[in-house]
Design goal:
Elements lengths: L2 H4 L5 E4 L5 H14 L5 H12 L6 E3 L2 E4 L11 E7 L15 E6 L3 H16 L1 H9 L3 H13 L2
Parallel strand pairs: 1-4, 3-5
Antiparallel strand pairs: 2-3, 4-5
Length: 152
């Protein structure tokens, strides 16, 4: 599954606003909610899961992938990204300091596995990960992902 089809420019945001992790999760999910890719119940399910000890969404390197079970309200495959100037640590824990949030909507296990694999390949490449973290605009992110996919 191509990330460039899931993570479109309108789903990429940057913020210099200080926020706590629940606000970051809601903010990263907002574009998917606005387009009907997820329901409000999906956002609630993500925040409840994290509040219950869901630091498992921490992928390392200051990156987190918020998601919930498909039946919680994933309507269509989609991915959103939020880059924060200041980290919003998961559960307020400094060891889970996150400043790059992704939100994945996967309506079934196949989409979930494919999207996670694509994102893992992108983020496991140190140069690409560094360039993604340094991106200053949605256009930068989109170009970076497209280049990465073309070279694979």
């Amino acid at each position: 599954m191509r990330l460039s089809t899931l993570l479109t420019p309108d789903r990429i945001a940057f913020s210099d606003e200080l926020m706590e992790w629940p606000d970051a999760v809601r903010r990263v999910a907002q574009p998917l909610l606005d387009t009907g890719d997820i329901t409000a119940g999906y956002v609630e399910a993500m925040t409840e899961s994290i509040a219950a000890g869901g630091t498992y969404i921490d992928l390392g390197f200051g990156i987190a992938l918020a998601h919930a079970r498909p039946e919680s309200g994933a309507v269509r495959p989609a991915l959103a990204m939020l880059r924060l100037t200041e980290p919003a640590p998961l559960l307020g824990q400094p060891e889970h300091s996150v400043d790059l949030y992704f939100c994945l909507a996967a309506p079934d296990a196949h989409v979930h596995t494919e999207a996670m694999g694509s994102l893992a390949r992108l983020l496991s490449d140190p140069d690409t990960r560094h360039a993604l973290r340094a991106a200053a605009s949605a256009a930068d992110v989109t170009a970076l992902i497209t280049r990465f996919e073309e070279n694979r």
